[in-house]
Amino acid sequence: MIEKLALIGIGLIGSSIALGARRAGLAKTIAISTRRAETLDEARALGLGDIYTIDAAEAVKDADLVILCSPVGSYEAIAARIAPHLKAGAILSDVGSVKGHVVDVVGPHVPAGVHFVPGHPLAGTEHSGPSAGFADLFENRWCVLTPPEGTDPKAVELLKAFWKGLGSDVEAMSPAHHDMVLAITSHVPHLVAYNIVGTVDDLEQDTKSEVIKFSASGFRDFTRIAASDPVMWRDVFLTNRDAVLEMLGRFLEDLSVLQRAVRVGDGEALETLFTRTRAVRRSIIAAGQETEAPDFGRPHGDPKPSEPASE
Ligand code: NAP
């Protein structure tokens, strides 16, 4: 058990950590800091922590584990603000969806004697804010840690144990590898979803067509991803540019091949690809990362999904 946990930023991810840590008894005291007073009041009303403050420096005082849970674009300023107040021997971590950038902007602020172990839980929903969190969010989901070379193994083990206590499986890798893998598994899919929903929205306005009415035929599933937090995702694309452009290049090449197959009527090429992609989904289900219930387990007759899907 950690004596004091400090969470800077208390939206979907921060509040889920607070609820999960409380439920599993991982921290005696939880200090919460966020930018806006209204959000802090909301966190207090939900009973997410023990100490509430607008001042991140006050929240991290005497904390054994500090986790940055705000949008990645805010990390540098927060790191500069809290660095002089971190206790010797404390672990400083984060949950940011991008890792190379975090190492670059937070790393230089970390004082000697503080262990910097960046992290990223591969779990989320399209909802934001303190009331969006739930204690089960990280259960059976991966959490990736990217400790810089030479990090004290005891600090890494402690953070691993913390995430395991929240129900996650934990794996360590380099920040560059993380950013490349996440570019294709998360960042480009979000870009595609934002794009297709934007295209449909333009079309809807131009033609007054019936895309919203008939959205359940496929479009609706993209809208879940495209409803994700605009500030968080803006920051992801601003801070993982190289890996996203690399994967986007491959995606566009493959899309051109598909476009040609449609144009020339190459049914065999289309069927071969669609068979391969169906197998990919089956392997994700077999790995326990998705429900095998048809249509994401949506109860038919009720348009609401039964459970939130992942990032
Ligand atoms: P969120 O629900 O929008 O919450 C963000 C929180 O950060 C809010 O409490 C916001 O509160 C606070 N905040 C914003 N700017 C701040 C600043 N300058 N200083 C202090 N607090 C600030 O976002 P989230 O989904 O929890 O995402 C948080 C982090 O988790 C991001 O770095 C994201 O990359 C990562 N992540 C997200 C997901 C996902 O699916 N959502 C999954 C894995 C990792 P105020 O109202 O006070 O501004």
TrEMBL record:
<dbReference type="Pfam" id="PF20463">
    <property type="entry name" value="PDH_C"/>
</dbReference>
<dbReference type="InterPro" id="IPR003099">
    <property type="entry name" value="Prephen_DH"/>
</dbReference>
<dbReference type="InterPro" id="IPR046826">
    <property type="entry name" value="PDH_N"/>
</dbReference>
<feature type="region of interest" description="Disordered">
    <location>
        <begin position="288"/>
        <end position="311"/>
    </location>
</feature>
<dbReference type="InterPro" id="IPR046825">
    <property type="entry name" value="PDH_C"/>
</dbReference>
<dbReference type="InterPro" id="IPR036291">
    <property type="entry name" value="NAD(P)-bd_dom_sf"/>
</dbReference>
<dbReference type="InterPro" id="IPR050812">
    <property type="entry name" value="Preph/Arog_dehydrog"/>
</dbReference>
<keyword id="KW-0560">Oxidoreductase</keyword>
<protein>
    <submittedName>
        <fullName>Prephenate/arogenate dehydrogenase family protein</fullName>
    </submittedName>
</protein>
<dbReference type="Pfam" id="PF02153">
    <property type="entry name" value="PDH_N"/>
</dbReference>
<dbReference type="InterPro" id="IPR008927">
    <property type="entry name" value="6-PGluconate_DH-like_C_sf"/>
</dbReference>
<feature type="compositionally biased region" description="Basic and acidic residues">
    <location>
        <begin position="295"/>
        <end position="305"/>
    </location>
</feature>
<feature type="domain" description="Prephenate/arogenate dehydrogenase">
    <location>
        <begin position="3"/>
        <end position="292"/>
    </location>
</feature>
